[in-house]
Amino acid sequence: MANRSELGRKGNQPDLLAGLIFIVAGALGLWAGRDLTMGNAAMMGPGYLPLIVSALILLIGLGVTIMGLMRSSEPLGVVRLRPLLIILIAVAGFAYAAGSLGFIIAAAWLIGIGSLADPETRLREIAASIVVLTIFGILVFILGLGVQMQLGPF
Amino acid sequence: MELFDSLILGFSAAVTPTNLLFCLIGALLGTLIGVLPGIGPTATLAILLPITFFLPPLAALIMLAGIFYGAQYGGSTTAILVNLPGEASSVVTALDGYQMAKQGRAGAALAIAALGSFFAGTVATIGLAIAGPTLAGFALSFGPAEYFSLTIFGLLCATVLASGSVIKAIAMIGIGLVLGWVGTDVNSGSERLTFGAVELFDGIEFVVIAVGLFGIAEIIINLETPELRGLIATKISRLWPTRDDFQKAWPAVLRGTALGTFLGILPGGGATLSAFSAYTLEKKVSRQPQQFGRGAIQGVAGPEAANNAGAQSSFIPLLTLGIPSNAVMAMLLGAMTIHGITPGPSVMQNQPDLFWGLIASMWIGNLMLLVINLPMIGLWVKLLTVPYRLLYPAILLFCCVGVYSVSNRAFDVALAVGFGFLGYLFRKAKCEPGPLLLGFVLGPLLETNLRRAMLISQGSPSVFIDRPISLALLIASAALFLLLLVPAIRKTREEAFVDEEA
């Protein structure tokens, strides 16, 4: 433990993040299940196991956080917002469009916006991808496999 | 010869033109996506899973099995040619395989990998055919208490044998369990943990979680790391290995097969553990261990045979007990459930054509891969030169349409966005998402069995101790847990995984 001076200063960031996720997940479980009946061991109510396990996740989250503070520091690694946000927005847009605007718009949005996640993509490639993949999707998914989605917004 | 009759039944079910076609399509698609660096078998299965929902159950399972083997093989090809293992189980293949490729022996490495895998797959399939009925017969006497203890044991084993922190893995299982309980409680009929969303009353769709955590999250991670792309070592000139290669490789294949078949059965085992152990074993028994890492053919043959044998025999606990041993098997269990099949001992009795058909198709799938892989190596190599930026939009489209098609709802796609983000966070937090998937598929089973057992015993936990099989499983679980607390063993485990990651 040569780098004792670093201990507790920054902490083990992956562990801290894990701890945070677990605490939030456990708390969310407890909150969502707050009105469920526990019942007893012989007649378990709908809330029995979910509440026990959620509490366990919360406790582990606290433990992992404390451990993360004590362990040697470790950075989180590269976080680049561009691919993260663009991919999530592209898929979310697909979800919205699939419900109301139909497959062609949904797929074109997904592929067009999604392609922007890689900074090296060129405009011509995006256009080609949209055309090729949308036609492929119509043929394979809608006509071939019979996925129930309108083609257009009408 | 009951086994013989069963196998004939299996082959007659599997060898129909449509089933063979789906097996081929599965193997091709699996290889296609498996070859891409950064996308392992779990992600490949998640992406392609929804396509199989349109098929009859047996054809769907056959296709999924084909996808799985294809992805496995595809990963090895990438590992050997460009030193980028597509998944954890081919990490060790890259060590010596890539060195061989650099020496101009890529053809030999690929051929030995394919032949060794085929041999191992054949042996492990026979093992499954023999062990399956025995184990299933044994499991028929299991009551709720035994099943509860078995599930606990399986889940705990999965955390111990998987890499990474055990405590995090347990929390991940917990999250999976809770997610599995979302929806309508079967006993009381009341809805729970749904936040009032009507779409969640039937629970969260398995595909949503699988595609979100493995498909979408994996694409984001791949895009974040600058161009995961190696250089293709050399042109592949000579495909067939030399006589000397064969002589060195076959004992390694035999050892790898034996090891993989055994390790695959263990919960949490499967392909990855088998491959790593086989590499270590080959290095130990070799007379020239210094050759390893410099292009030793045994270092390719052993792990490749082992990972295929392990992949195959990890079907045993799933098909006979209904307990998946790793994330890939959890994926197959999810697929079976969607087709209305509950895996477990009763499948073999009630739907023997399904069980034996699947076994027969495993062998056929392995044979097909041998046929596809060797002559088509050139094509897969070409695929590796296509930039990722052109490929991932297509994968994204598969993910989205796949999630949508499960119940034709846009809601599921929106939910998958959430799981994609969660999967990204998990990777940043160094949490393996595999245990979550295991917890999710086993959650309802665990709760049902616990409730039944406790109802019968009127709330007394002694029921788990009074029944010998249950007691044995619980003692084994407790022992496993205690072992982890022993510092020496914990250290060995950490070292073992450090060695693996190197």
Structural summary, described in words:
Chain A: This is Tripartite tricarboxylate transporter TctB. The complex is a heterodimer of chains A (154) and B (502). With 154 residues, chain A is mainly α. Chain A has 5 helices and no strands. Chain A is 64% helix and 0% strand. Chain B has a two-stranded antiparallel sheet with strand order 1-2. Chain B has one domain. In chain B, helix 2 runs parallel beside helix 4 and helix 8 packs across helix 19. Chain B is mainly α. Chain B is 75% helix and 1% strand. At the A-B interface, helix 1, helix 2, helix 3, helix 4 and helix 5 of A face helix 8, helix 9, helix 17, helix 18 and helix 19 of B.
Keywords:
heterodimer; A: 154 residues; mainly alpha; 2 domains; 0% strand; B: 502 residues; 75% helix; transmembrane helix (chain B); transmembrane (chain B); membrane (chain B); DUF112_TM (chain B)
Task: Provide a quick synopsis of the model.
Chain A has 5 helices and no strands.
Q: In percent terms, what proportion of residues of chain B is strand?
A: under 5%
Radius of gyration of chain B: 22 Å
Strand order of the largest sheet of chain B: 1-2
Give a quick account of the main beta sheet of chain B: strands, pairing sense, barrel closure. Answer: 2 strands, antiparallel
Number of strands of chain B: 2
Number of helices of chain B: 22
Helix content of chain A: 55-70%
Q: How much is the average pLDDT of chain A? A: 88
Which secondary structure elements does this structure contain, and how are they paired or packed?
The complex is a heterodimer of chains A (154) and B (502).
Chain A: H1 13-32, H2 48-70, H3 81-100, H4 103-115, H5 123-144
Helix pairs in contact in A: 1-2, 3-4, 4-5
Chain B: H1 2-14, H2 17-35, H3 41-48, H4 57-82, H5 91-102, H6 106-139, H7 144-161, H8 166-181, E1 183-184, E2 191-192, H9 206-224, H10 243-265, H11 271-285, H12 298-313, H13 315-321, H14 327-338, H15 345-350, H16 352-384, H17 388-407, H18 410-428, H19 434-456, H20 463-466, H21 468-485, H22 487-501
Helix pairs in contact in B: 1-16, 2-3, 2-4, 2-16, 3-4, 3-9, 4-5, 4-6, 4-14, 4-16, 5-6, 5-12, 6-10, 6-12, 6-13, 6-16, 7-8, 7-19, 7-21, 8-19, 9-17, 9-18, 10-11, 10-12, 11-12, 14-19, 17-18
Transmembrane segments (chain B): 45-69, 108-132, 152-182, 203-221, 258-281, 318-342, 354-374, 386-404, 470-489
InterPro entries (chain B): DUF112_TM
Keywords (chain B): Membrane, Transmembrane, Transmembrane helix
